[in-house]
Amino acid sequence: MTRHGPMNEFCWMDLKTRDPAGTAAFFSSVLGWDFAVDEEDWRRAVKISAGGDRIGGVSDLAQPVYPPGTPPHIAFYLAVDDVDHRTALAVTNGAQVVVPPFDAGDQGRIATLIDPVGAALSLWRPRGFAGWPVSAEAEGTPHHAVLACEDPERAREFYTRTTGTPLGRAAFRKAAPAPAGTDAGTAAGSAPRWELALAVHDPDAVADRARAHGPDLVTLTGEGHHRVVRLRSPEGLTFQVQGGGEHVPVPGR
């Protein structure tokens, strides 16, 4: 297999959870995702599909490879041309290396970093691993990635210098202040993180399905075409949801 889309775009995600069954039940109910063991993978890894297109995987944090106390989170993979070279450039531009470059079997080469604004990501040079398709129209497919932080221009410049070109299908935004009297969550004061925006046909219906699992699992911001629905799983895994599909431009680039 070859990469579906261009380099310098996010191409895959891995939901790292302490409750694989509960995570699958929530996102299947709310987004219609399918969670199934990949019978062609010797690891028998669980893969996530939207409308027949594979978009991510699931990892169980109870496995011994993860340090005790690792919180549930979503790992995102950025496709690059040369992991070792881009990792070196990332360090020069202010990133910290969490996991140095290594070969992930015959699937590709990977390194995990913390960027200068504090967001984690993995650089990925695909070999046999295809990544998600970039023009899928199925419900719940990836549309673009969003990084909200205190200094979005610094973040944007870091990725441009590291990859050699502006990131595709990515938006950089100023982090909003946390509402008074509430948990900061992904707002100012917490560690920045990449978040995936998903394309759906009816954001309100998605929000209603999420609220059936708990009234605090949905946050609404903006109006009209700028309206964003943020979903949070019971474990705290978050996604943005927007209507309109592929023709909607990436905001805040």
TrEMBL record:
Residue intervals of the VOC domain: 9-126, 141-244
CDD domains: SgaA_N_like
Residue ranges that the Swiss-Prot or TrEMBL entry lists as coiled coil: none
Bilayer-crossing regions: none
Signal peptide: none
Protein name: VOC domain-containing protein
Origin species: Streptomyces griseus subsp. griseus (strain JCM 4626 / CBS 651.72 / NBRC 13350 / KCC S-0626 / ISP 5235)
